């Protein structure tokens, strides 16, 4: 690792060939602790009388104004399995939330400090970004027993620029294992290009093509320790399974796109009134 988070030639080569890269010990224990404590406070203060559910299987059905407006807010989304037949939570809200997003990196000082740190900027600069913006951020809980599945997908499907420039930055705040729902990916699948787009139209959101069928044996598990950062190419096919264990799998995820000579697709679900400030201009 070079100074200020720059990637080494070997790391860049691995990312280029495989479509992902694990950077161990990217976040310090005190940084992890600060983000987890801050999220605990945010959840405690959250009034859960307004329930919005997040699902990668049925988001077309669950999409509402709350979801759209989350692009510029700190919004809370519940697990599909958090509610009983009576419509009430089956367990405390702290164990029922799927994720919090999508502007933590802008609106919360703790998450903003980490998301705009020198090591983030140095890493993005070494990836070739010239005017990067964080287009969304999420705190993902992967709750014990009910943490929902995230089906195989590509980040460029949801956050498309012309040309495509999205990179996912997935930080493990807790150990991520096969048992509690770690990431899985098809190495090298980013070389096959974008399969489909998630389009926002007048009638809501939908994919322009059905999902291909993937062979489970092509996926590899990306098990990482807390503090590890996983870089994910925008065209990489990746997923995670339900968390059926008794241990949570907290993570902080960001998605970055370049705005230097790149056009943000108006068909994306995120429509910002004001473009976010770039992390740097190269």
UniProtKB/TrEMBL annotation:
Its cofactor is Fe cation. Keywords: Iron, Metal-binding. InterPro entries: Phytyl_CoA_dOase-like (IPR008775). GO terms for molecular function: metal ion binding. It holds the Pfam family PhyH. Signal peptide: none annotated. SUPFAM superfamilies: Clavaminate synthase-like. This is Phytanoyl-CoA dioxygenase. It comes from Eucalyptus globulus (Tasmanian blue gum).
């Amino acid at each position: 690792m070079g100074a200020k988070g720059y990637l080494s030639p070997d790391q860049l080569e691995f990312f280029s060939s495989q479509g992902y890269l694990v950077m161990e010990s990217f976040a310090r224990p005190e940084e992890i602790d600060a983000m987890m404590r801050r999220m605990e406070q945010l959840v405690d203060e959250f009034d859960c009388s307004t329930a919005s559910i997040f699902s990668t299987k049925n988001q077309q059905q669950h999409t509402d104004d709350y979801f759209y407006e989350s692009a510029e807010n700190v919004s809370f989304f519940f697990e599909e399995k958090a509610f009983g037949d009576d419509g009430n939570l089956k367990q405390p809200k702290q164990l029922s939330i799927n994720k919090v997003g999508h502007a933590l990196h802008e609106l919360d000082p703790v998450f903003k400090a980490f998301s705009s740190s020198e090591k983030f900027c140095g890493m993005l600069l070494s990836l070739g970004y010239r005017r990067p913006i964080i287009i969304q951020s999420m705190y993902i809980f992967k709750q014990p027993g009910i943490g929902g599945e995230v089906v195989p997908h590509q980040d460029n499907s949801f956050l498309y620029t012309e040309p495509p420039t999205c990179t996912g930055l997935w930080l493990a705040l807790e150990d991520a294992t096969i048992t509690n729902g770690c990431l899985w990916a098809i190495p090298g699948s980013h070389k096959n290009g974008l399969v489909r787009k998630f389009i926002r139209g007048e009638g809501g959101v939908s994919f322009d093509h059905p999902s291909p069928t993937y062979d489970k044996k092509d996926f590899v598990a990306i098990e990482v320790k807390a503090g590890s950062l996983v870089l994910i190419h925008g065209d990489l096919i990746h997923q995670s399974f339900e968390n059926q264990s008794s241990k949570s799998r907290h993570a902080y995820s960001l998605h970055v796109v370049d705005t230097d000579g790149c056009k943000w697709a108006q068909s994306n679900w995120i429509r910002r009134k004001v473009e976010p400030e770039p992390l740097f201009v190269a």
